């Protein structure tokens, strides 16, 4: 068991909380504040327990100086202030006198947000390469370190692994919740346990398939990755996405686990990927040379529903169609509708799957929508996450 924020007396302590405020922003507007909202429990707990709260987060990627302005956390600070209903002191630098002065002035219950940790990547990737001098500097600003950034816990950066290796540490409520629900579902699932896998490439999901095929009762495969499996079965998929290097992997999985792997029996196909192209339903054994399969078809929705309706635990990673385009979001929407009505544990992996189901209007309809994309995948692969492994055990 990992130490948590509950295991410390926070009163009058400077508590550094690593959050994941990596939210989508366009034209100076936060498009989805889910990750900020998901961080509130830990921040509010720290405030209510008398901590001086120092927040760290990354936002986007910083490769050159022109990336700085677009990836400042100032908008996040404003949104956080609205959500917390209290002053958030935003310090627009990652180190130096200005920051140290702001921290010196802190009182019990006050909140400081430090500028994007990846500003430090401009000079030799200090944050992303877990630079010890940087971690030591940030550690000198606080007394206790709490990691609550689930979305970056699969990376070893100065603001998570570096800080945790220096300060007394624990996890926050968000990481605790994410890990508990995902690990419980994998290690001791209520059965039948069904996994829905979609998204673009088989390559990104090989580790997940290898790990979960042993544990799950059924794996329903849709999205771009389904067509590599259909090729492995000897079918023509026209111009659909095929991950040529992984056809043999798909063959092996189909040979060893034929009764667990459920593939599309029909598909929505078009000749172009846009909303005005003509869409047809094509059975999986009758896809034409010019066709691009971009969504599961109605018979596949019915087939998948039969498995979902008898399931007690469902984990879903990857949209089952090209869901950014309305014409090809029907399968993903239909599965959202089914899951939203089930009496089962329903978990949505982060990243593209989370954005798809939220954009389709199903934000509050599942047991859990993960805030991590890569981190969720690595947990589902059965890997250790360095940002969590480094935290002290009880
Ligand atoms: P991933 O990040 O691997 O979960 O992949 C998500 C992406 O897969 C989304 O951008 C989808 O548009 C894409 N995708 C889903 N189904 C298909 C498909 N049939 N053909 C091509 N791309 C797809």
H/I helix tally: 14
Major sheet size, sense and barrel closure = 6 strands, parallel
How large is the radius of gyration?
A: 23 Å
Distance between the termini: 6 Å
**Portion in beta strands:** 15-25%
What's the arrangement of strands in the largest beta sheet? 5-6-4-1-7-8
Q: Which structural category do the helix and sheet elements fall into?
A: alpha/beta
Describe this protein's structure.
With 394 residues, this protein is α/β, with parallel strands linked by helices. It contains 14 helices and 17 strands. The strands form four sheets. The protein has a six-stranded parallel beta sheet, with helices on both faces. Strand 7 (144-147), helix 5 and strand 8 form a beta-alpha-beta unit. Helix 10 packs parallel to helix 11 (330-341). The mean pLDDT is 97. Bound molecules: adenosine monophosphate (AMP). Residues 198-201, 204, 223-224, 241, 293-294, 318-319, 321-324, 351-352 line the site of adenosine monophosphate (AMP).
Describe, in short, the structure shown.
The chain has 14 helices and 17 strands. The protein has helices spanning 34-48, 74-84, 97-104, 132-139, 158-164, 173-187, 206-215, 226-232, 247-256, 298-309, 330-341, 351-359, 374-380, 386-389; strands at 14-18, 25-26, 29-30, 52-56, 88-91, 111-114, 144-147, 169-171, 193-197, 218-221, 261-262, 266-270, 280-283, 292-296, 313-317, 345-348, 368-369. α3 links the parallel β5 (88-91) and β6 (111-114).
List keywords for this structure.
alpha/beta; binds adenosine monophosphate; 394 residues; 14 helices
């Amino acid at each position: 068991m990992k130490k948590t924020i509950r295991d410390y007396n926070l009163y009058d302590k400077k508590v550094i909380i690593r959050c994941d405020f990596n939210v989508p922003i366009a034209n100076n507007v936060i498009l989805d504040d889910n990750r900020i909202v998901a961080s509130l429990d830990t921040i509010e707990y720290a405030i209510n327990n008398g901590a001086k709260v120092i927040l760290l987060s990354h936002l986007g990627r910083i490769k050159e100086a022109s990336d700085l302005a677009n990836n400042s956390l100032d908008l996040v600070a404003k949104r956080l202030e609205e959500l917390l209903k209290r002053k958030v002191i935003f310090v627009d630098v990652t180190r130096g006198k200005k920051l140290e002065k702001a921290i010196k002035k802190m009182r019990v219950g006050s909140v400081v947000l430090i500028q994007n940790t990846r500003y430090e990547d401009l000079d030799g990737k200090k944050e992303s390469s877990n630079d010890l001098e940087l971690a030591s500097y940030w550690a000198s600003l606080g007394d206790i370190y709490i990691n609550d950034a689930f979305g970056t816990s699969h990376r070893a950066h100065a603001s998570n692994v570096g800080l945790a290796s220096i300060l007394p540490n624990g996890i926050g409520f968000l990481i605790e919740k994410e890990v508990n629900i995902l690990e419980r579902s994998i290690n001791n699932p209520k059965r039948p346990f069904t996994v829905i896998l979609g998204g673009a490439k088989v390559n990104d999901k090989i580790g997940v398939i290898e790990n979960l095929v042993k544990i799950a009762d059924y794996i329903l495969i849709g999205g771009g990755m389904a067509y590599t499996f259909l090729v492995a079965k000897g079918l023509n998929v026209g111009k659909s996405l095929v991950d040529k290097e992984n056809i043999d992997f798909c063959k092996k999985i189909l040979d060893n686990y034929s009764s667990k792997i459920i593939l599309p029996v029909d598909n929505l196909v078009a000749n172009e990927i846009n909303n005005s192209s003509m869409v047809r339903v094509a059975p999986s054994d009758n896809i034409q040379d010019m066709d691009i399969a971009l969504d599961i078809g109605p018979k596949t929705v019915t087939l998948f529903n039969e498995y979902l309706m008898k399931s007690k635990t469902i984990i879903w990673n990857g949209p089952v169609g090209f869901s950014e385009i309305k014409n090809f979001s029907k399968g993903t929407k239909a599965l959202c509708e089914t899951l939203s009505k089930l009496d089962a544990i329903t978990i949505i992996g982060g990243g593209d799957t989370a954005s798809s189901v939220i954009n389709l209007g199903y934000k509050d309809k599942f047991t859990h929508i993960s805030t991590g994309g890569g981190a969720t995948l690595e947990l589902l692969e059965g890997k250790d996450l360095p940002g969590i492994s480094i935290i002290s055990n009880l």
